């Protein structure tokens, strides 16, 4: 339904009067934002109900994407875009003297995730709806999202993210759909009158799970799916049990905060309870919905329901489904297991050992006694079946419960029919190394699904100047189907197009430069190379390697002020887990180096370092369109995929990368001439592990450049890092440089020098940039979810349908 501009304006004014008893002239941006949000929500509410009804009426198989993190960021513009009313709404607001972009800034980021995994889940939600697939998200409604990051004296300080303070315009509380979740206490099996064994619960706590639903609006197709997030409450029946304020607090805190650890498993009780809470609530509501609306026997569940386990955090889906099918639906173990394995599928997002979830038997038994009983049984049956087919040690290594711990990845693989990695290289490593034992047992379960990004958000919404150039050059079909970006390839030698793209980039850079000045007081020139590394701070991602190179440049310039070199602004965005000491030390060192270099009159604006605080989705939206260089420099084999690499490429940045994660596929897409590859390959990294020959000390002794750079950390060159500098130095020399920074240093420097040269030839650079944009289409999450839908979930797209 097209939007009539005049009607829209009247409606906005009318709603403002109704809700705030105010005229537009007197309303604040905040009030206008909330009014506009309500108006947008009202526009898709019919389609939301119709979509739901269509799935039910047609008995459509649906996928439920279980993820402990979702990271949608702001939703106003993407909802307007997907409803096909972004331009008209913008014009209407302009008529009223209001800038849509200013209004959009009012919206708090929905930051219910740490990084890549959570953002991927949200890109998938967009693409599932846009592809017309019956699919829903299931997660937790945290009262506080990921902490807000500030820098004080160069140190990271964490502040609470009170995103719900002024209310959340997009969600709908559905109290009538609440379910109870039981935790703690004791469970034993007792015989019922008809001779069956049934679990009896004693002294358990009952938690009330209340769902908050958010519409996931598809792109111009009248499909609106549901993201269901659960919040904890105290059930009426339990009121008298929770008379102490302390007791209430403890319970209400369950969904208060998102754990801010990215890939660093800590095994804490509340986290385990969180995991069970949203898993149990989600599965109960799926079964209830199935029974009420589908009216099919429970034995047919796998024909109508698919459940996706996003990393191991929702792995309890397996025993919880078993519990419901056996304890409540009274199926036999064999029947229940058959259904469960058919319903479940699992994605692995990491090969880092410290991210693989394990829980002690003791904690599991105390917290979730019935879950533990079921997992014990799954484990016992697994061993019994497999020991007839495989060697004893293989079965022992792969079982779920071993050495006093419950292994959630093992549970996820054994309890599902599909295990996938998130980039070709990553999926290959799962098969050959990390999960090799399981690959021997279940070769058919393993597959690859290379990640993708919500291309419309990461181009149309964040980069209007570039989008306009694309429209003028290749028409508008790319807006719907990003595969059509390849039409741009025909213009790689068209000087006029190259220049227009360069102008668009310049506009974005100037805008970011203004933002940088506003937030950090650092003045940067839009003529400089904007060299960007944005991602969580983690040793394996090697932000420190980036810093080593910057220090080298600084030392070169001090020694030889007439050195020829392009001006560069090094831009960082990264949060460190609050308990990740080493990552915080790196932040401090980057900030102190920035202070030193940015204020050195010898350097002027030849190098600038900008560490923008509080990296999140909406900050990414400001940085990415302005980037010239995309730093993807993790140690080969460590980054499962990466997704900022895809977003930066789409916006015309040139990738500087190791052959890690999806970088390999980016290289395949653009060709060796349009990307800068350096460093050890994954094979070479594994060779080092095997022959244990690596000596960082030797590199330090033999390489004068490395020595000079590292000495800067301990000889006072960089001020205010007496302890931190020593720690960095020791991590590299005394503890032998776990992530081979020094081994990759020379080839990184060389690649950086090539980039410097290439940027000097603007036409050459612009052509590379165009080729990157033109080949980014294949990294669309539309494509990725289609592959999941076809190969794993077995769900069908509902062709675009019109409700009127
Ligand atoms: C167990 C717990 C502490 C934990 C919490 C968060 C474990 C892992 C994570 C998050 C992992 C994550 O974000 N992984 C990233 O997933 C992206 C999407 O697949 C990948 O692109 C990226 O390479 C990977 O690091």
Automatic annotation (TrEMBL):
Cofactors required: pyridoxal 5'-phosphate
Keyword Membrane: no
Catalytic activity: [(1->4)-alpha-D-glucosyl](n) + phosphate = [(1->4)-alpha-D-glucosyl](n-1) + alpha-D-glucose 1-phosphate
CDD domains per record: GT35_Glycogen_Phosphorylase
UniProt key word Ribosomal protein: no
Xref: SUPFAM superfamilies: UDP-Glycosyltransferase/glycogen phosphorylase
Short name of one Pfam family: Phosphorylase
E.C. number(s) listed in UniProt: 2.4.1.1
Entries under PROSITE patterns matching the protein: PHOSPHORYLASE
Molecular functions (GO terms): 1,4-alpha-oligoglucan phosphorylase activity
Keyword annotations: Carbohydrate metabolism, Glycosyltransferase, Pyridoxal phosphate, Transferase
Task performed by this protein: Phosphorylase is an important allosteric enzyme in carbohydrate metabolism. Enzymes from different sources differ in their regulatory mechanisms and in their natural substrates. However, all known phosphorylases share catalytic and structural properties.
Record family assignment: Belongs to the glycogen phosphorylase family.
Name by which UniProt lists this protein: Alpha-1,4 glucan phosphorylase
Lineage of the species this protein comes from: Bacteria, Bacillati, Bacillota, Bacilli, Bacillales
């Amino acid at each position: 339904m097209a939007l009539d501009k005049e009607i829209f304006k009247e409606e906005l004014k009318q709603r403002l009067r109704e809700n705030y008893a105010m005229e537009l002239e007197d309303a604040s941006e905040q009030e206008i934002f909330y009014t506009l949000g309500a108006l947008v929500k009202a526009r898709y509410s019919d389609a939301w109900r119709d979509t739901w009804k269509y799935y039910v009426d047609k008995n459509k198989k649906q996928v439920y994407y279980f993820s402990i993190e979702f990271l949608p960021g702001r939703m106003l513009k993407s909802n307007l875009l997907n409803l096909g009313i972004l331009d008209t709404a913008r014009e209407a607001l302009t008529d009223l003297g209001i800038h849509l972009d200013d209004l959009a800034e009012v919206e708090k980021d929905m930051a219910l995730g740490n990084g890549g995994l959570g953002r991927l889940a949200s890109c998938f939600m967009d693409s599932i709806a846009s592809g017309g697939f019956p699919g829903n998200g299931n997660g937790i409604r945290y009262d506080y999202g990921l902490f807000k990051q500030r820098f004080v004296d160069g140190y990271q300080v964490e502040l609470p993210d009170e995103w719900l303070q002024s209310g959340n315009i997009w969600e709908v509380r559905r109290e009538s759909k609440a379910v109870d979740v039981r935790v703690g206490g004791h469970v034993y099996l007792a015989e019922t009158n008809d001779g069956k064994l049934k679990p009896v619960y004693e002294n358990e706590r009952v938690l009330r799970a209340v769902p908050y639903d958010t519409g996931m609006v598809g792109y111009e197709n009248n499909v609106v799916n549901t993201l269901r997030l659960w919040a904890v409450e105290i059930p009426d029946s339990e009121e008298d049990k929770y008379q102490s304020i302390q007791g209430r607090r403890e319970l209400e805190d369950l969904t208060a905060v998102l754990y801010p650890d990215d890939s660093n498993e800590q095994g804490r009780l509340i986290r385990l309870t969180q995991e069970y809470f949203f898993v149990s609530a989600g599965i109960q509501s799926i079964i209830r919905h199935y029974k009420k609306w589908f009216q099919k026997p429970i034995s047919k569940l796998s024909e109508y329901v698919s459940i996706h386990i996003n990393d191991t955090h929702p792995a309890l889906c397996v025993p919880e489904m078993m519990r419901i099918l056996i304890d409540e639906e009274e199926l036999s173990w064999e029947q229940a297991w058959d259904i469960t394995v058919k319903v479940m599928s699992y994605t692995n997002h990491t090969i880092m050992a410290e991210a693989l979830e394990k829980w002690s038997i003791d904690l599991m038994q105390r917290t979730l006694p019935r879950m533990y009983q079921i997992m014990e049984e799954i484990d016992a049956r697994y061993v019994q079946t497999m020991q007839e087919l495989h060697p004893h040690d293989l079965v022992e290594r792969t079982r779920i419960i071993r050495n006093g711990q419950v292994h959630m990845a093992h549970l996820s693989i054994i309890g599902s029919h599909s295990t996938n990695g998130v980039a070709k290289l990553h999926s290959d490593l799962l098969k050959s190394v990390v999960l090799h034992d399981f690959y021997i047992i279940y070769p058919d379960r393993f597959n690859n699904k290379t990640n993708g990004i919500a291309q419309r958000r990461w181009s149309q919404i964040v980069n209007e100047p570039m989008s306009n150039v694309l429209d003028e050059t290749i028409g508008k079909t790319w807006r719907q189907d990003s595969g059509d970006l390849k039409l741009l390839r025909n213009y790689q030698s068209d000087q006029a197009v190259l220049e227009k793209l360069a102008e668009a980039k310049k506009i974005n850079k100037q805008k970011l430069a203004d933002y940088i000045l506003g937030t950090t007081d650092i003045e940067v020139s839009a003529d400089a190379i904007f060299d960007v590394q944005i991602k969580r701070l983690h040793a394996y991602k090697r932000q420190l390697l980036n810093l080593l190179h910057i220090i080298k440049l600084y030392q070169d310039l001090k020694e030889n002020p007439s050195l020829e070199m392009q001006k560069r602004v090094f831009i960082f965005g990264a949060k460190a887990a609050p308990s990740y000491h080493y990552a915080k030390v790196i932040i401090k060192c980057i900030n102190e180096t920035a202070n030193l270099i940015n204020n050195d009159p010898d350097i002027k604006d030849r190098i600038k370092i900008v560490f923008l605080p509080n990296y999140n989705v909406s900050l990414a939206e400001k940085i990415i369109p302005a980037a010239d260089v995309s730093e993807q420099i993790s140690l080969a084999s460590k980054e499962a995929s990466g997704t900022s690499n895809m977003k930066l490429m789409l916006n015309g940045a040139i990738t500087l990368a190791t052959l890690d994660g999806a970088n390999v596929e980016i290289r395949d897409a653009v060709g060796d001439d349009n990307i800068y590859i350096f460093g050890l390959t994954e094979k070479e990294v594994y060779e080092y592990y095997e022959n244990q020959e690596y000596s960082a000390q030797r590199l330090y002794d033999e390489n004068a450049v490395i020595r000079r750079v590292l000495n800067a950390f301990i000889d006072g060159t960089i001020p205010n890092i007496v302890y931190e500098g020593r720690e960095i130095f020791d991590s590299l020399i005394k503890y032998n440089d776990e992530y081979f920074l020094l081994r990759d240093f020379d080839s990184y420097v060389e690649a950086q020098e090539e980039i410097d040269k290439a940027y000097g030839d603007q036409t050459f650079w612009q052509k590379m940039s165009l080729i990157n944009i033109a080949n980014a289409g294949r990294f669309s999450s539309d494509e990725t979810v289609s592959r999941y839908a076809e190969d794993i979930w077995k769900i069908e797209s509902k062709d675009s349908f019109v409700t009127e």
